[in-house]
Amino acid sequence: MRVFTAIAFSPWSEKARWALDHHHVDYQEAPFMPVFGELALRLRMRKPFGRITVPVLHDGPRWFTDSFDIARRAEEIGRGAPLFPSDALEEIRAWNERSEAALAAGRAILMRSWASTPELAIAALPSGLPSPLKALLQPLGRQRLEAFMTKYEIRDGDYSHEAILMAELDGLEKALSGRRYLVGDGFTYADIAMALTLQQVSPVDPRYIVRMSGLGPAGMNIDTFTLRHAGLIAWRDALYALHRRPAPLAQ
Predict the structure, then answer these.
(1) For 68-88, how does the pLDDT look when each residue is reduced to its tens digit (9 = 90+)?
(2) Which of 39, 116, 174, 213 lies 20 to 30 Å (CA to CA) from residue 57?
């Protein structure tokens, strides 16, 4: 059985998961705990050095370690309408790169805004711990959180993340201009990739993606973004309604 290691609430994981489900690929999802789950994944992958990130798809002897590559693998082994039409591959790849830039900016905004909150330190601890023990281990959660932020260079550089995210969302809105799909006349991976850029702004219905526990129900929820891009949020929600089934546990 293929094993898909993912973070339930991560938009990067959802980009790959959506493609796997679209192509009816059989897999078992293994939940990944940021920071705490890294050592176990390293051992499974036999990768003692270098950065470890998820999602990861273990398919026989092969490891696919990027959402885009997992989606391409899903198309190779699955069935159903293509997400990567051959004549539009480079255009879809470009949209995916824009998605990665927007998601990284959104993550930086989110993590910086929550970095000093005790809720985030507690959320960084393994979910199975009893609540009283989580309170006692909050300093450890803070330490693990700082390691995560260092890994992704979230505290480095300037504070242009808002401008990056806004520019990508403005570009998406301009490209759509009332259209349902970004590339051609059909649903492609470009739509998946860019729809997920809105998850850190205004999360989709939790029937589709669970929300990060302990940090409120609405993700980033920055009024500037949600008000300016209400049309994009509606577009994203329509894509989910048309092309995504609710998660099995949410049905």
Answers:
(1) 999 999 999 999 999 999 999
(2) 213
